[in-house]
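Model it.
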Amino acid sequence: MSDLSSTSWRYTRIEIAKTRHGPLYEVLEVALSGPCGVGADGHRDARVLYAAVVWGWLLWPSDALLLDVTGLDYVWGDDLIAVLDIGSDRMLAPAPVPVAIHCAAWNRSAFDGLIAGIGGTAPFLTTDRRAALARLLEERRIR
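Modeled.
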């Protein structure tokens, strides 16, 4: 997909809680990075990032999803809503998937504005990775 977008992604499986029999709770972390076009110029980037997250989930379905956007150069554009609201997407699972977003201080305001457009149960957004993982574990306990 590198010919479609200059964004990139990386997958990491994180075991939050373990038993002697294996992982009790696993989170798929998808780190998104690179330049994301502004406004309509970001449409293709957003679609490629959406496909990358879905592809990762299909390969490694987990209990929750952590989107790391600390390296994503995002300023503005509504098309990225599909990526952030992916936990409610029925393509991933029959029930909603808990999602947290780990952003950087420099791009937080852009993601705050984007999440406001989601409405309903928007994903948890924080600049603290540990807080994001703790929130995902807490959501697991509530369910």
